[in-house]
Specification:
Blueprint: E1 9-21, E2 24-41, H1 44-47, H2 51-54, E3 61-66, E4 76-79, E5 82-93, E6 98-107
Antiparallel strand pairs: 1-2, 1-4, 2-3, 3-6, 4-5, 5-6
Length: 110
């Protein structure tokens, strides 16, 4: 089974925009892209894993998705109606070039 066949969920990446309405700054989130993805909770053993993982494991969840170089930590992710802040974006190499992204996420609580 290929990596991309494992992406059985959908993520919507949103970016924030600000507008000034009558002297009041209003911030809104708009959809930037929707893509196949896979959300996995980072458990205790993963946090104690290999040094290469430890260097960038900063979130409570890892989101795997195809390569979208314009995704940044200033955006947020929505998976199954739940909103997550993007703590870190890791570009993962394939055999010859960047293959996919692994986003470290934290759930946003109301």
């Amino acid at each position: 089974m290929s990596f991309f066949e494992l992406l059985t969920q959908s993520v919507t990446i949103q970016e924030q925009h600000s507008s000034n309405v009558g002297g009041v700054v209003q911030k809104t989130w708009t959809d930037k892209l929707t893509a196949p993805a896979r959300l996995v909770a980072n458990g205790g053993s993963m946090r104690k894993g290999a040094e290469t993982i430890e260097k960038y494991t900063r979130g409570d969840y890892t989101l795997f998705l195809g390569f979208h170089p314009d995704i940044t930590e200033k955006m947020r992710a929505v998976v199954d109606g739940t909103v997550y802040e993007i703590a870190f974006v890791a570009e993962v190499m394939g055999k010859q070039n960047y293959d996919h992204l692994e986003l470290q996420l934290n759930k946003i609580t109301a």
